[in-house]
Amino acid sequence: MEIDPRGPRFGAAITVVVLAVVLITQSGWLLAAQCLVFAIGALAGLRYAPYGLVYRGLVRPRLGPPSHTEAEAPPRFAQATGAMMALAGVIGFAAGSAVAGTVFTALALVAAFLNAAFDFCLGCQAYLFIQRTRPSAHQAAGPDREVYQ
Prior knowledge:
Structural class: mainly alpha
Oligomer: single chain
Order of helices and strands: EHHHEHHHH
């Protein structure tokens, strides 16, 4: 599925604000809510993610059609990565380790900021790197093995 690349960037901008508030307040509950937002985007797809719904309903109609589209898989991987970072932060806060909660929140904040400010999706780049470096089905099977698909 192809998506409007401006949607994930809009979501990243909201995420930056939420994660900055988490760092200021040290709120594990707010981080848990952001973790849920990430998880919905990763598991159900970006069109069902809360920030994606806001973008499609309120922002995109005012912008017009995108000049290009992009594959949904890399941003979904980025959402999954964000969910893992946020979950680690929630666990840190819940365990009484403000340092762990803060560090994992800050890591997610940096990635969201890069996307929002510079249109550089760190999770997307990781996804593409993994796709380029993993062996293909034929290479994994080897020359003497049959490839099943």
